[in-house]
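I'm stuck. Protein, please.
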Amino acid sequence: MEKKKFDFSGAFAIVLAILILLIFIPINMIFSYKDKVFDMTPSGQYTLNPITKELLDKTADKHIDVYFLSQLNDLQEVPKYLPLYHTLTELEKRDNITLTCFDPNKDVEMAKSLDPTGTLSVNPADIFIKCGDVTKKVSFIRCFPTDSNDILMYEGEELIAGAIELCTSGSLPTIYFLSGYSSRTLADYSNYADAMKTDNYSVDELDLSKVDAVPDNTAIVYLVAPEKDITDSDLQKLKSYSENGGALSLIIPPCDTKGRFKNIESLLAIYGLGMHYNTVTEKSPLLKPQITTIYNALSDEMINYLNSGVENPTLQNQLNEIQEHYIKVSYPYPSADATEDLTTDLNAKLQETDSGIYPYVSNTRSFFEITSSGALMEKFSIIENLTLEQGSESYTTVSTPMGGDDDTAEVANDLSNEPLIFGYYAYNKQTGSKLYLIGTDDAISNDRWTYATTGTRMLTLFSNTWLYNSDIDMGIGAKSNSYDTLTFDDADDAARTIRLFFIIPALFGLAGLAVWLKRRYA
């Protein structure tokens, strides 16, 4: 019996093609209408991580507002931003989460309601998470970093989940400025405090004498410009805080108070550091700052003198004295033995010709190491004085005794024309405690900050995220695209591979087609 042949070349083939179209086109339209996506990305960029789902289940009883400062279709139309689009739309599906999308340039009032103090810097496409009275900003630019191979990553889900975790906890991590030890208050550093708030910290004053211990919500304790020693009771509270992994930022400029600050010295000694009772000036005119970089610290009388062009020896001497208190410094790169890095990013900024950042400190004291860095306590200098020429050992700084006693005065007198350190970091690897220490508060003060000290101000701001990162590590990490690559020894190797994988299969395909055509009409 002759076998029946199926002819797919005629009307049947046309009918089959129509049936396929009738099946797949409606399915595609339905999934597009329902915004249904099958996540085929290697790292699951279009679906929520189980950690995020667990967090959302845990916080289902709390109302959460998510604000996206643009329109969702702006993300949907750009393929590389689709991961953020799907994260936001998945959040919107939750009954307790309200997603609001708006243009901050058009809806100014809503933008202002998210940042009533103007400290968070509201920018298009940023994300704000709000729960109760706590608001945290997630910068759009941080959602899409690139790795060492310049491949785009997606870290938005990690950051947004961390923000939800923080906001639903009820409070932001707080940086406390200790009160009671200086005539200067937090109000004198309010501009700097506002800058810290943009990194999602709360900033407040703390009188340690009125509490039993450093509060649990403390991110960092600042001791700024003390004019007297801390009390025995406060020392014990700070020691306990340090032993439990606390973070300290000690900003201790020169002070003419007689007598030693024994308790502050004891606190520094925990980290193997000590302080000099001195004030340091620079005598070399080659290392003094340009007048334009300290203009905002000069009196009106001094500015009028500079603009007049008329000689005035008295005012000129005063100007020289002001300049002498500005010391050009270096911010040493991390040692080969260091695990921490506070200065690389700053040095990169300094190398940009138009950065507007200058490497000076002003009105500073110096510090020293009691013990060297070791396996458990890592500490290295982060601000040092400079020589006149690179590679030279000729220093031109002058150390003048200030405060302290006769013993400290003798030490201070011997420090002129010597290498000096104006800042340290220390990290206790056993307890996790960290210390940032510098000898000047000019860089963070409202009235004595100048362009010359922008480098030191930036270093101090950078130190906060090193001391305490306000981003909660959720363990989701960055999601990346995986790319397979082929590496060839030379052009001939590449040509052979192309023939093997493309040309030869194509020839077999053509041969098969020829056989089919021949048999078709047999």
Q: What stands out?
A: The first strand starts at residue 64 and ends at 68. The longest helix spans residues 491-520.
